[in-house]
Amino acid sequence: MPESETREFRPELIPRRGEVNAWLMTLAAAVGLFVLNQTLDVVPGWTWVFCGFLAFSALSISLGNWMDRQTRVRLEADGIRFENGLRRVRLSWPEVQKVAVLPTRWGKSVQIVGEKSYFEFKTLGEVHFQGEMRGRTGFAEGQAILDLVLRKTGLELVEESNNAYYYARG
Hints:
Blueprint: E1 7-9, H1 17-39, H2 45-70, E2 72-76, E3 79-83, E4 88-92, E5 96-103, E6 108-114, E7 118-122, E8 125-129, E9 132-137, H3 142-153, E10 156-161, E11 164-168
Antiparallel strand pairs: 1-2, 2-3, 3-4, 5-6, 5-11, 6-7, 8-9, 10-11
Helix pairs in contact: 1-2
């Protein structure tokens, strides 16, 4: 990457079908709870807990999808920026102290650690079900981001264990 070039990366976005299904199930449970409340003298406590659980799950899925749509990693000549709608982190290349690369179910988790802040992103992972690819998650160019961060920071491999890699200043 030339010194003056800035590159911005965004993660692969998963389909929103799961979010829609979660909200539809929450709505159906709420309607069922309303009907029970109108027809029974005492509504069992577990039905309230179940509806609350469905609403919390749907809200969590929506928040995750919203954060994915806000997430970006920006590589600049003087450092790296990360934002996801809830967090904003800016680290100059000398401020990056450590990088950890950890295996996950889909792709790798890359943790960029500075003295006062850190952030994490995932490299590309493909979700397979019954031998068929159902979706992609993480950053398609995640490995390229990692390689550039390691080159720009001058961090060296200090430990490797169980497919996890730790880089730090030499």
